[in-house]
Amino acid sequence: MADATWQAALPYLFVALAFGYLLGSIPFGLLITRAAGLGDVRKIGSGNIGATNVLRTGNKGLAALTLLLDAVKGTAAVLIAGRWGGDFAIAAGFGAFLGHLFPVWLGFKGGKGVATYLGVLLGLAWAGALAFALVWLAVAFASRYSSLAALVAAIAVPIALYLLGHDQAAALFTVMSLIVIVKHRANISRLMAGTESKIGAKG
Predict the structure, then answer these.
(1) In degrees, to the nearest 5, what angle opens at C-alpha 64 toward C-alphas 61 and 68?
(2) How confident is the model at residue 200 (pLDDT cuts 50, 70, 90)?
(3) For 42, which DSSP code?
(4) In 59-111, at which residue ranges do the beta strands (DSSP E only) sit?
(5) Which residues are within 8 A (CB) of 182 and not within 5 positions of it... i.e. 6 or more apart?
(6) HSE-up of 44 (CA within 13 Å, CB side)?
(7) Which helix (H) or strand (E) holds 90?
(8) How many CA atoms lie within 13 A of 53 on its CB side?
């Protein structure tokens, strides 16, 4: 955008960011487990509201539903805001990601953002989402560590986007990947100590 156009669009970009944030802040993992009579998912496992922790309830169906809905809110934010242009799609996508991480309804204590990250990626650059999925599946299959798979995939995505020519998306996902890594710092410590829970393990 030219400077004048950028300045004129800035308020609308903030609206897109806020819209994405509110959509992303819907805590599906918490709502779904409560509706299923499983109590507060934040009181088990890692205390996270995401699909990996929902899986620790022993209900694979609820975990899959949580994963799907957490991803969909990222994709929906991008596709809806994208009707007004690519910059608005990026702003809304980033807002959805931040909303999942720091939901206002839960005292700004949310999930680690991987599913919503993937949903935003799917909305902006489906080839990048395919790269994420392939890397995640390969690492998860080899290691049985969801956190390690997410970390490796998050590192791979910005590189893949740059190689595919999606420079603007690559810049966004460089920032988002760094945030994902920071949010997984406790997992990184447990991985290094050999105490990280494997996929399907309870507690």
Answers:
(1) 140
(2) low
(3) G
(4) none
(5) none
(6) 21
(7) helix 86-101
(8) 25
Backbone angles phi, psi at 137, to 5 degrees: -65, -40
- One-letter amino acid for residue 20 of the chain: G
Residue with tokens 């970009």: 13
pLDDT tens-digit profile of 16-39?
999 999 999 999 988 998 888 887
Residue-by-residue DSSP string for 133-164: HHHHHHHHHHH--HHHHHHHHHHHHHHHHHHT
Q: What is the pLDDT of residues 39-60, one digit of tens each?
A: 788 888 777 888 878 877 778 8
pLDDT digits over 99-133, tens only? 999 999 888 888 889 999 999 999 999 999 999 99
Residues 6+ apart with CB under 8 A from 192: none
Distances in whole angstroms, Cα of residue 84 to Cα of each of 17, 87, 89, 100: 13, 8, 8, 23
**8 Å CB contact between 69 and 49:** no
Do residues 177 and 154 touch, judged by C-beta distance below 8 A?
yes
Terminal alpha carbon distance of the chain: 50
b (16+ CB within 10 A) / e for 90-128: bbbbbbbbbbbbbbeeeeeebbbbbbbbbbbbbbbbeeb
DSSP state of 46: T
